[in-house]
Write a structure and sequence with these properties.
The protein has no helices and 27 strands. The N and C termini lie far apart (41 Å). The protein has strands at residues 2-3, 8-9, 14-15, 20-21, 26-27, 32-33, 38-39, 44-45, 50-51, 56-57, 62-63, 68-69, 73-75, 80-81, 86-87, 106-108, 113-114, 119-120, 125-126, 131-132, 137-138, 146-149, 154-158, 168-169, 172-174, 181-185, 188-191.
Length: 193
């Protein structure tokens, strides 16, 4: 097991060997990290969370309480997973049919936020700095900076890296907090600065 000495593992958590947990990462009460998982630096794995075998979690991610990050899910750096949000890994699960060879990979790109109680179907990519609203159900790939709301989830707008809703005039928008400028073209937003 390669648990960094600066990582904090609560005595009630279970961490299987071998796995990697980076410096400054906390794993809280009743959480379970399976063998082969790789968790980066400065992460927070909340109470009653589950990190599956072979899962990769980047640096500075926040996995809130009651979240299961199943096999075939990858989180890049600075991803936020809100309380009780759900990842899936099989499209058509049945209790009486073993389908572990049908797991579909899910990728959550850098800086994305997934709100409380949202559901992410397997086999999709959530773009950089996208924001998935609480309770949304995501059934298809999500563009960078998209705000996704509803069931099924649809693009309801665009957000900045700081998480503020962007307003566009002639295809140009500006984050009210950071001052960063963005361009909207079709169904794509890019950071200009």
């Amino acid at each position: 097991m390669a648990v960094h000495p600066q990582a904090r593992i609560h005595p009630d958590a279970r961490v299987d060997d071998p796995c990697t947990i980076g410096s400054g990462t906390s794993v809280w009460h009743f959480s379970h990290v399976r063998s082969g998982a790789i968790i980066g630096e400065g992460c927070n794995i909340g109470q009653n969370a589950y990190v599956g075998a072979g899962v990769r979690i980047g640096n500075r991610c926040k996995i809130q309480n009651n979240v299961s990050v199943y096999e075939s899910v990858t989180l890049e750096d600075e991803v936020f997973c809100g309380p009780s949000m759900v990842f899936t890994n099989v499209v058509n699960p049945r209790a009486f049919i073993e389908r572990k060879d049908e797991f579909r990979p899910t990728l959550v790109r850098r800086g994305a936020t997934i709100g409380a109680n949202a559901t992410i179907l397997c086999g999709i990519t959530i773009g950089r700095y996208a924001m998935i609203g609480a309770g949304a159900t995501v059934t298809r790939d999500v563009p960078d900076f998209a705000l996704i709301l509803g069931v099924p989830g649809r693009v309801a707008g665009w957000v900045s890296r700081a998480g503020h809703r962007l307003e566009f005039e002639d295809g140009q928008g500006c984050c009210p907090e950071s001052g960063e400028r963005y361009q909207l073209s079709g169904n794509r937003v890019v950071l200009l600065d």
